[in-house]
Write a structure and sequence with these properties.
Elements lengths: L11 E3 L2 E7 L2 E6 L4 E6 L4 E8 L4 E4 L2 E3 L6 E5 L3 E5 L6 E8 L4
Antiparallel strand pairs: 1-2, 2-3, 3-10, 4-9, 5-8, 5-10, 6-7, 6-9
């Protein structure tokens, strides 16, 4: 077993913050204060968006806009957009995990 945390993964810098691929297709996104990410449209399938560090940022999934708390899990379907506007002074960290279709 390998325990993943923000301290033992490899981060790559992005204009909106940083990201780390933790498994094939599963990516942590850390959106820096006063930065924005997206809109990013999901091409196909479904995706879980897990809030691992809540910074109070505004998150839009499809038509729903919220300020999620740590531990909240959102699901989006193909064609739905994800957009984050971090208008706070804290980082927001999301783990994005694609869902596999049933065989």
């Amino acid at each position: 077993m390998h325990v993943l945390s923000e301290h033992n993964v490899t981060w790559s810098e992005q204009p909106w913050g940083r990201q780390s691929e933790v498994a094939p297709g599963a990516t942590w996104h850390e959106i820096s204060p006063q930065k924005s990410f997206g809109p990013d449209k999901l091409a196909g399938g479904q995706e879980l968006i897990i809030v691992t560090l809540a910074g109070g940022a505004q998150v839009r999934v499809a038509e729903r806009v919220l300020r999620p708390l740590a531990g909240q899990v959102l699901q989006r379907d193909a064609g739905e957009e994800l957009e984050v506007v971090n208008d706070t002074t804290h980082v927001l960290r999301l783990l994005r995990v694609p869902l596999l279709a049933n065989a």
